[in-house]
Amino acid sequence: MKILTQPKNALTKQYKKLLAMDRVELEFDDEALQEIVAIAKKRGTGARGLRSVMEEVMLNIMYSLPTRKEVVGCRITADVVTKKAEPVYKKRKSSSTADSELQESAA
Question: Rounded to two decimals, what is the model's pTM?
Answer without folding.
Answer: 0.84
